[in-house]
Amino acid sequence: MLEEVERWLATRSWSVADRPLHRILAAKQRTGQTISVVLPALNEEETVGDIVAVIRRDLVERVPLVDEIVVVDSGSTDRTSQVAAAAGARVVHRDEILPRVPAVPGKGEVLWRSLLVTSGDIVCFIDADLRDFSADFVSGIVGPLLTDPGVDLVKGMYDRPLAGTAGQGGRVTELMARPLLNMHWPQLAGFVQPLGGEYAARRSLLEQLPFPVGYGVELGMLVDALHLVGLDALAQVDVGVRKHRHQDGQALGRMAAAIYRTAQLRLARGHLVRPCLTQFERGEDGFEPRTYSVDTEERPPMLEIAEYAERKVA
After folding, report:
1. Which of 28, 63, 119, 304 is the most buried (most CB within 10 A)?
2. 251 by DSSP, 3-state: which?
3. To 10 degrees, the CA torsion angle through 14, 15, 17, 18?
4. Which is more confident, 269 or 74?
């Protein structure tokens, strides 16, 4: 490990207990910064309501830390929107945001568009499939942004059990993302959960970053932030244990391909001969190929979008 990374681990990796809630709240009141929490959601009616309810109860009503909770529904066919609204979130449909730009499927697309419908100086992203959710996930990762002006982006780090076994979640992280980062961006080797969906950043940083539209958004954002603001402006906070729905192996393969493509673009902005991934499923006549497109599209920095610039002027 680089000496720079060892120093970073000692100075930019914290526990949620390092910043008690009263200290975070005092910093918010002193600086006047506002906080938006965004949950990208697609068919998450089983979990999204509980997450919203915990944030509203613990960080809006009991302690006035969070200023707005926004669920961006990316085309759910279940009751995600109704459940989220009933729990106290403002729900916005992906297709209603910046309608002149046709939406494409993907998590990164939703996160990018969320910048247009939120107002917080700090934007905190939380996945909508978490179980046994704790408000520490929010307060833990926004804490350093409120108390340390030199920090611009904070990732959550946590244990990720799989089927009751500790440390076995995060398969794409261990098999794809971590080797990529260690080999090509060794300054980022200290991040425990580089692909984690729980992170917070200053709007002033997010609006300058391009957003890969799909699964590559977390890796792309981390790499681009490193180049834009430097390692010392990045941090991570231990928030405990993350429990969520796990995807099957083939879905993880598609995720890994998208992440590799995101890395490839950042390494060389080169030409990908075949931006597709073929997988196999057993059918009635043996193994049948299924070919999927690999995410290649990225959204430009939000500062380049006229509607966003007009909103800032207004």
Report:
1. 28
2. helix
3. -10
4. 74
Find the distance separating the first CA and the last CA of the chain, reported in whole Å. Answer: 47
Q: Where are the alpha helices (DSSP H) in 88-195?
A: 107-114, 136-147, 171-172, 178-184
Contacts 24+ apart (CB under 8 A), 21-27: 21/63, 21/65, 21/139, 23/143, 23/147, 24/65, 24/139, 24/142, 24/143, 24/146, 24/147, 25/63, 25/64, 25/65, 27/146, 27/147
Q: Which of 123, 149, 155 is nearest to 236 (CA)?
A: 155
Q: What is the DSSP string of 252-299?
A: HHHHHHHHHHHHHHHHH----S--EEEEEEEETTEEEEEEEEPP--EE
Show the tokens assigned to 190: 């200290």
198-240 pLDDT tens trace: 999 999 999 999 999 988 999 999 999 999 999 999 999 999 8
Rounded CA-CA distance 15/180 in Å is 26
Spell out the residues 6+ positions from residue 286 whose beta carbon is closer than 8 angstroms to its own. Answer: none
Report the greatest alpha carbon distance in the chain: 67
Q: What is the pLDDT of residues 147-184, one digit of tens each?
A: 999 999 999 988 866 555 555 446 788 888 888 888 88
Q: Which residue has the tokens 């997988």?
A: 279
In contact, 129 and 47? CB cutoff 8 Å: yes
313: burial class by Cβ within 10 Å (0-12, 13-18, 19+)? exposed
